């Protein structure tokens, strides 16, 4: 084949209309991401974009909205225990999971019910 995939550019999660401030609180205060300004031509669609390091998460407005309860992005982390402590302080619930050999991981739901996996390889 004459083409190569390089990396995932971003992951998009859906949210209900008018919930951008909730997304900001969760992704900025809860997970430590920074907001990225959307291109002017896309601002009219609503939603908000975030990044941390090489990871970008775009929150897009979907109407009608249905959360992704099974499909999910998986974010690799260093310092999972520290993140869990931070989530506890922010009153953000998560579920620990030990079913993946060689990894410590948790699942957290964003404010809209979308599932996010966060894992640290051991």
From TrEMBL:
Glycosyltransferase is among the record's keywords: no
Domain of life from the UniProt record: Bacteria
Keywords, comma-separated and alphabetical: Dioxygenase, Lyase, Oxidoreductase
Molecular functions per Gene Ontology: dioxygenase activity; lyase activity
The VOC domain, residue ranges: 7-121
Keyword Oxidoreductase applies: yes
SUPFAM superfamilies, per database record: Glyoxalase/Bleomycin resistance protein/Dihydroxybiphenyl dioxygenase
PANTHER family, per the entry: FAMILY PROTEIN, PUTATIVE (AFU_ORTHOLOGUE AFUA_3G15060)-RELATED
Protein name as it appears in the record: Catechol 2,3-dioxygenase-like lactoylglutathione lyase family enzyme
Organism: Aquisalibacillus elongatus
Lineage: Bacteria, Bacillati, Bacillota, Bacilli, Bacillales
